[in-house]
Amino acid sequence: xxxxxxxxxxxxxxxxxxxxxxxxxxxxxxxxxxxxxxxxxxxxxxxxxxxxxxxxxxxxxxxxxxxxxxxxxxxxxxxxxxxxxxxxxxxxxxxxxxxxx
Length: 101
Fold this sequence. Notes:
With 101 residues, this protein is an all-alpha fold. The protein is 82% helix and 0% strand. The chain has a domain at 29-96. Helix 2 packs antiparallel against helix 3 (68-96). It is rod-shaped. The mean pLDDT is 83.
């Protein structure tokens, strides 16, 4: 019976070491650059979309006020909120993978 317990303890220790090694793997530089690119695009696309939509609206429905700047700002706010959500999700996943104290 003690041989079984010893074997189970050894297997559990090896599994714990493997799991810890997987969690503490350093992320390469390319991962960080890719994340920055994703964040950049998540801000740039809605901003550009808002500006284009505003320009289109102004061209097809002329009025006293221009809609280009307000829709550009709305796209920027939407893009920043999207980037904040993306970064907070990544941060939470990195902190969840660490060992509890």
